[in-house]
Amino acid sequence: QVQLVESGGGLVQPGGSLRLSCATSGITFMLYRMGWYRQAPGKQRELVATITRGGSTDYADSVKGRFTISRDNTKNTVYLQMNSLKPEDTAVYYCNADFSRNYWGQGTQVTVSS
Q1: How far apart are CA 24 and CA 78, in angstroms?
Q2: Is the separation of the CB atoms in 38 and 92 below 8 Å?
Q3: What single string gives the DSSP state of each residue in 5-52?
Q4: Would you say 102 and 3 are in contact if contact means Cβ atoms under 8 Å apart?
Q5: Distances (CA, A) of 104 to 35, 42, 57, 61, 78
Q6: Can you tell me whether residue 108 is helix, strand or coil?
């Protein structure tokens, strides 16, 4: 059974930082391109960042220079370090695994507010 379990979300003040984790099981993690997406209320889900199995990364323009995606193939886990958070980063953040099939986690809420 495939599982993607996000953690690390919460409430943070503008300018603060959070680190999201996505622990996976049931997949050959090292083969998968991993990604983080987010969905704010009333908006479509959007790409935040991706990392290939080779470690190449890509970011949405809105988070470049503030967010960093990384992966640990020994722990089957992908991370999203989020710095200099803004209120517009408020959303539910979802982990995605893409290779032969596409899988999603259940999401973790990130709220940036003073």
Answers
A1: 8
A2: yes
A3: EEE--EEE-TT--EEEEEEEESS-GGGSEEEEEEE-TTS--EEEEEE-
A4: no
A5: 10, 20, 19, 22, 13
A6: strand
Q: How big is the chain by its Cα radius of gyration, in Å?
A: 13
Q: Judge whether 83 and 63 are in contact, CB under 8 Å.
A: no
Residue with tokens 């790409």, as numbered in its chain: 47
CA pair distance 57, 40, nearest whole angstrom: 23
Q: Is 55 left (phi over 0), alpha (psi -120 to 50) or beta?
A: left
**15: its two tokens:** 């300018």
pLDDT digits (tens, 9 = 90+) for 43-82: 999 999 999 999 999 999 999 999 999 999 999 999 999 9
